[in-house]
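Hi Prof. W.,

I finally got the Adenine phosphoribosyltransferase prediction working! I wasn't sure whether to trim anything, so I left the full sequence exactly as given:
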Amino acid sequence: MSAFDFESRIVDIPDYPEPGVVFKDITPLFDDAEALRAVIDAIADHFADRGITKVVGAEARGFMVGAPVAYRLGCGFVPARKPGKLPREVYSQSYSLEYGTDELQIHQDALTSDDHVLIVDDLIATGGTAIAAAKLAEQAGASVAGFGFILELAFLNPREIVAQECDQEVFTLVKVN
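And this is what came out:
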């Protein structure tokens, strides 16, 4: 695990997006070259020897983390997008999130049964997005190797929720209790 102080670069925004919620703003991790490098290296290094062939990142912040992690791992990147954003045949998966429901899609030809997939996103809260991405990978016949996140809202018990659907490791850089 990196000795970098990730938590010092995360800013609390009270009452956003609604009263009573403390939003964890990770954008300072992205605008600092040293912090960005530390985030990407820590996630990529953790999964370096797992035979990852593709990284799946959920729209939109999962792109910001997933694509550079894929680059570091020397593998491909698959965007999991909102409905209507992908031009070819897609697999779709709806899911629950903290403030409602949503849906993710991937191209049907993005993954194969030969792929060993790492699911990457900026945050895991209730686990819905992560589980949806894993189910999309499995619909395509791929296997899921694990999950990597910058931030975990541990007080929402995402690890337990993910464990009900997937038995792969959940790795995070910062846990908020």
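The mean pLDDT is 95. Does that look reasonable to you?

Thanks,
D.
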